[in-house]
User: What shape does this take?
Amino acid sequence: MLLDLAEVNALPENRDYFYDYFLDNCSTRVRDLLDQVLDGALLEQLGTRETGTSYRTHTRRLTEVDPLVFAGLDVLVGSLGDRPISLWQAMFVPMTLRDALRDATVTHADGLEVPLVVSEQIVAPSTRSAEPAQAESWFWRYLILGSFLGGLMIWMGRLAATGRRSSRIILGILASAWSLLAGSGGVILVLVLFTDHWAMARNESLFLLNPVSIVLVVLAPLALAGRKRALRLARLVAFAAFGIAALGLLVQSLPATSQQTAMLFALFLPVHAGLATALHEIATC
Assistant: This one.
């Protein structure tokens, strides 16, 4: 029966579907087929078993080997990704599915309970290292990097205020690059609100990556080129972006907040503060 269901699932009309990284992927489809064959026994066993994990914690541990992917997905996952999940839900990860099936049992008609898996065979050995049980905290690494970038901007701003042209150029490059990252990231997060990507909804990363910052991609270089009006506007926008990020930090401290993004605030908030301070130094010199 399982083979029949798998063959139906592999038919051309069923092969293409709306992929959901957490709810409907290659692992959950195997899980659901097995549960269908077992008349719901698998869900009954695992549906209420707590794991102390969330979709975010699994995403972090599986991607921490790639810092860019790790950071990018951490930004994209919203507060719904921090809700506690059961073992059944955690089986969106193939390795978790494998481990859960090892412990699962089935009950025969005579009441005898036996293991679901009686033997295992490795068909295609993996060359990848085993995934970690949990991700390391990147809080201090992010805080050091964010503080360095923010401090560098302040330093360049103070040197630029004395008339040093090279410092203005460096600050202009840093400001434009940062604003492009923060602004375009914010635009993406806003656009996601109009889609069905539930895992990205209600995302407090918008406090850090704000579409407002995109204006500084053009304004900051003009301000550092000596345009006084551009400098006033750039300083205003930079402080607005910093204020929104600081407000987000306040929201993070509220008991009702579930999104685990303290690491992201450690990275992004110091940079927002550094850029706003640097432009203020130049504007008031």
